[in-house]
Amino acid sequence: MTPHNEAEIGDFAKTIIMPGDPLRAKYIAENFLENAKLVNSVRGMFAYTGLYKGKKISVMAHGMGMPSIGIYSYELYKFYNVENIIRIGSCGGYLKEINLFDVILANDVYTESNYALTLNNENCHIVSADKTLNSVIKQVAEISNQKLIEGNTVCTDVFDHYMTDIKKFFNRIPKGFNPVSAEMEAFALFYNAKLLNKKAACLMTVVDSQFIEKQASTEEREQGLNNMIKIALDSGILL
After folding, report:
1. Does residue 208 have an active-site annotation?
2. What CATH number was assigned to the domain covering residues 15-236?
3. pTM of the model
4. How do 149-155 and 103-110 pair as beta strands?
5. Which of 6, 44, 194, 205 has minimal CB crowding within 10 Å?
6. C-alpha angle 44/113/121, rounded to 5°?
7. Are 111 and 156 in contact (CB under 8 A)?
8. Annotated catalytic residue: which of 102, 160, 208, 234?
């Protein structure tokens, strides 16, 4: 159907859960979905569609960074008639009170990237999650007694631990924005949803923090991500 996706029209559900890692998409399909079918493997960006609690739902990897999720989410919205995308991924915590494996729900996202300018000639650097989608996610978390932290996040073009002077980056963040976390994809997803009149949300599990010396291992990350995965899937079947 596209140079990046071999799925046919109708292969995807209206709601897609999107982790960054293709192996995480495979993990979700194998452990949470029934009758999961592989519908895309181009460039190893696995996508599956199956049943979760009796409802058709899809999971697809989006890779790392705004250009990657920008391509996949744009095509899903534009060409595959997808209505809702919930990104699930890892993030860094920016508050002392945030602990490893806390789950964060993004409200507004700020980026220094010119993604919006390049795509749509709009000098836009802050974009919001869909409020209706976020409301459903909050309700699901509350019903399942899962702790959920709401807040703004920054979306960077580089892994923030590699910045030569992160204090200078913080000084460039708009006053009053007050991010609670950092990640690398949500802005492009939210902007595509805004542009194409679709819905998008972003759930993140904290895997590192400037206030915590310990960094989560790969195994700990996988286990810690399960709570977030369940929130996303349970929200997806209500849409």
Report:
1. yes
2. 3.40.50.1580
3. 0.95
4. parallel
5. 44
6. 100
7. yes
8. 208
